[in-house]
Design a protein that fits this description.
Organism: Candidatus Oscillibacter excrementigallinarum
GO molecular function, one term: DNA binding
Shape: elongated
Order of helices and strands: HHHHHHHHH
Number of helices: 9
Distance between the termini: 53 Å
Largest sheet: none
Radius of gyration: 19 Å
InterPro entries: Homeodomain-like_sf, HTH-type_Tx_Regulator, HTH_TetR
Strand content: under 5%
Protein name: HTH tetR-type domain-containing protein
Keywords: DNA-binding
Helix content: over 70%
Length: 189
């Protein structure tokens, strides 16, 4: 038996909702987004929105899960400093190719809560998959993962805030030096 295909109307409606939502994110803070305005922009009624999503939070969660999933798909080990260097490069190269929406969601102060949730999701997965990578107790490894996850984002946000004045290679090199030399006391070469 063939898998059931999604109705084209459903696909179009979800796309209209998603497009309107993303446009609104680019224009305003999350707390200013309303279902009323979203449905007007998507040219649907309120009931149609609720057929697809329970709330704006559910729609945002879908976006969050997609972004986190893209990072989680990039498998990496943390057992050697070369692994960490590679992950820093992967992060910056990936982010540099994303739409302005990603920068808005990950770098705008009003969406800090979303970045924090994405970071927790990704780093939680990384901790689970790389438990014991540093040969330390769980509490110490949690500190290392928190350091790596937060400092990488801080450096990326600063690069964006500065208008990406440094070249991609320059910011990767500088970030790698800052992160890895700070981590070299606990990660084997």
């Amino acid at each position: 038996m063939e898998p059931k295909k999604t109705d084209l109307r459903v696909i179009r409606t979800r796309k209209a909702i998603r497009d309107a939502f993303c446009a609104m994110i680019m224009e305003m803070d999350y707390q200013d987004i309303t279902i009323k305005e979203l449905t007007q922009r998507a040219m649907i009624n309120r009931n149609t929105f609720y057929l697809h999503y329970d709330s704006l939070d559910a729609l945002l969660r879908e976006l969050q899960d997609e972004i986190a999933g893209e990072f989680i798909e990039k498998q990496v080990s943390y057992t050697k400093m070369a692994d960490i260097r590679r992950m820093i490069r992967v992060f910056f190269e990936y982010m540099a190719t994303q739409s302005p929406l990603h920068d808005r969601l990950l770098c705008s102060g009003s969406y800090q809560f979303l970045y924090d949730r994405i970071n927790q999701q990704v780093m939680g997965y990384r901790k689970l998959m790389n438990r014991g990578a540093f040969g330390m107790d769980e509490a110490s490894e949690n500190i290392i993962f928190a350091y790596y996850g937060s400092i990488t984002a801080i450096l990326y946000r600063q690069w964006v805030a500065d208008g990406k004045q440094l070249s991609l290679e320059a910011v990767i090199e500088l970030s790698t030096r800052l992160i890895c030399e700070g981590m070299s006391s606990v990660v084997k070469y």
